[in-house]
Amino acid sequence: MEGCDGSFDYRGKGLIKRILLPLDGSVYCRAAMHLAVEIAGRSGAEIQYLSVLESGSGVMSRSALTDAFFRPLQVDSYSEYTRLKEQLDLEVKTITNNLDGVDFDPARTSFDLLTGSPSQHILTQSKKSDLLVMGRRGTMSPEVDKRVLGNTVKEVATHLPRPLLISGRSGNPLKNVLLAYDGGLDSAKTMQVLAHMMTACKLKRVHVITIGDSAENGQATAEEAKNYFNLYDIKAECIVEIGKPTTAILEAIETHEINLMAMGGFGAGRLKSFFVGSTTKRILAETDLPVLMCR
Q: Of 166, 194, 228, which residue is a domain's last?
């Protein structure tokens, strides 16, 4: 269901039906593929692969589809489509075999090979999907700091009207989930998407962290999330903190062995820095977690 502003609204819809997965051949792309296959396999969704040949480059982002799980292969025409799809199907089977309780048929995939701007094509194709899963950075990103988001991911995250799941470097199965919740619209949207995702993946427990002006306000905000997850038969364990958001989140990640982080694209009121700027940068820099975001 499409919202009036072009954003996605899950109300009245049955879970996630289509996942968009951009490919570039990086190790982060492989981790993103693990996430997409796990979610699709548990939810019954289909996966749309997308690879973009940048205009004037002559090849698909030079090293695209050459490292990580693909054999070296230069893509300079659409004649390679069938070979690429076969390689993707083989990788899907390998991932599926290593995930307990996941049964995903490669027939539930499609593969688009386009020419132009990667970020623009991703944004356009995302309108037909329920969830976008991307690697944290690609093969073409500057090797300044591998923990920082690549330029394409930054551009997409800024304008994307769909939920975005950014992978880390490793593709571990989803198990322990942490939601950073401030009661704002964006974190509420993230909570909604997360509840659907957890239901599809049969995850029954989530940790919810709130940082408030006072313990009383923080607890009230946490109760909102707890009551919402109860509707999905998901047990929410609340963590209420007063102080620096980044430190509290990082401590919760370590204490509870979190392997999926969820937060809104933007915060509400004085807690705006809870979700953007230095907080997000530190979480991305100091952890290798996949991060689910909505805006």
A: 166
